[in-house]
Design brief:
Length: about 290
C-alpha cells in the first residue's frame, strides 16, 4: 500500500454521518465506535478489504489544508438513489509525547468519533486494501487480529456468507483484546459474528489478557496454541490464505505461537516465507 503522502486526494466528496454508536461498553477504557456514513455520490465502488480516507479540515502543521487518515471499510450497502452507506470501525486514539510525557489527542480519530448524525465529512478514495478474498470458495481463510484489526474480517465474513451465499473452505477467526469488554463485534453489547456461528465452515476464537490491570499481553498465542493441530494443518495446506491485522503486537504474538507449534522458530519462518512467496500471507499492521 502506498504511503499517505502518495495517495490521490484530488477528488474529495462529501459524506453524511448516519449513526455513531460506541461499541465498547462505558466501563471500558477504550472508546471504539461503529460509524455509518452515507456518501454524496452515486458512482462509488469498492472491494471488500478496501479503505476510505477521512480528510480532517485544517489549518494543520506545515500549511496542510487537510489531515488524511485511512479507515478499513467494515461493511457497506446500497440505499435509495443508488447511494452507498459504509460502516467503519473507529478507535479514539491518544498519544504520549516521548519527551514531555504530555497526552495528545489523535487528530483524525477524535474528530471522527465526535461527529454526530447529520454532520458532513470530507472523504476521499477508496484505496486498495492489503487484503483480497480469493475467488475459489473452497480455499481456507485463517484470520488473526487485534483491536480494530477485526474491521476487515467483519467485512470478509459478512461478504462470503451474506453476499456470496456461503463458503466451503474453513473460515477461522482468532481475535484478541485486553478485556472482554473490548471485544469488538463480539461482546454483550454487539455480537455481529453470532449471526454466523451456525455456519458449518465458520469458527471464532476469542482471547483476552490474563492480567489486564498490569497491561499483560493479550493471550492470543494461547488461543492459537489450544487449536494448534488445526492451525498447523491449515498453514501447511496449499489452499489456505492467512490474513493478519491490527496492532504490530499481533505479529509478535502470532510468530511466538506458530514457532511453538512448528517446533522451532526456523521451521515457522521458513513456512511463513513460503506463504508470502505464494501470495497467501497478507497483513495490515499499525
Amino acid at each position: 500500500m502506498a504511503s499517505l503522502a502518495e495517495l490521490d486526494i484530488s477528488k474529495p466528496f462529501v459524506a453524511t454521518v448516519i449513526s455513531n454508536d460506541r461499541i465498547t461498553p462505558e466501563a471500558s477504557d477504550e472508546d471504539i465506535r461503529n460509524i455509518v456514513i452515507e456518501l454524496d455520490t452515486e458512482d462509488f465502488s469498492y472491494h471488500v478489504g478496501d479503505s476510505i480516507g477521512l480528510l480532517v479540515p485544517g489549518p494543520h502543521e506545515f500549511g496542510n489544508e487537510y489531515h488524511l487518515r485511512l479507515y478499513t471499510i467494515a461493511g457497506g450497502e446500497k440505499v435509495s438513489g443508488n447511494r452507498t452507506r459504509l460502516t467503519l470501525c473507529v478507535k479514539r486514539c491518544f498519544y504520549i509525547d516521548d519527551y514531555s510525557g504530555e497526552k495528545y489527542e489523535g487528530k483524525a480519530s477524535n474528530y471522527f468519533c465526535d461527529r454526530a448524525p447529520g454532520d458532513k465529512l470530507t472523504m476521499a478514495g477508496p484505496y486498495k486494501g492489503a487484503f483480497t478474498i480469493p475467488d475459489d470458495e473452497n480455499t481456507n481463510l485463517l484470520m488473526v487480529g487485534l483491536g480494530t484489526g477485526i474491521a476487515p474480517f467483519r467485512a470478509f465474513v459478512r461478504h462470503i456468507y451474506d453476499v456470496r451465499g456461503g463458503w466451503k473452505g474453513k473460515v477461522r477467526l482468532f481475535f484478541g483484546a485486553k478485556t472482554g469488554l473490548e471485544m469488538l463485534y463480539m461482546n454483550d453489547k454487539r455480537d455481529d459474528f453470532a449471526n454466523y456461528y451456525d455456519e458449518n465452515t465458520f469458527k471464532a476464537f476469542e482471547a483476552v489478557s490474563p492480567r489486564p490491570a498490569v497491561d499483560a499481553p493479550v493471550a492470543l498465542d494461547q488461543a492459537i496454541e489450544q487449536n494448534s493441530q488445526e492451525v498447523w494443518d491449515m498453514v501447511r495446506d496449499p489452499d489456505t490464505y492467512v490474513f493478519v491485522a491490527g496492532h504490530e503486537k499481533v505479529g509478535e504474538l502470532l510468530d511466538q505461537a506458530m514457532a511453538k507449534i512448528a517446533g522451532s522458530e526456523e521451521k515457522w519462518q521458513r513456512r511463513k516465507a513460503e506463504l508470502k512467496a505464494g501470495e497467501r500471507w497478507m497483513e495490515l499492521m499499525y
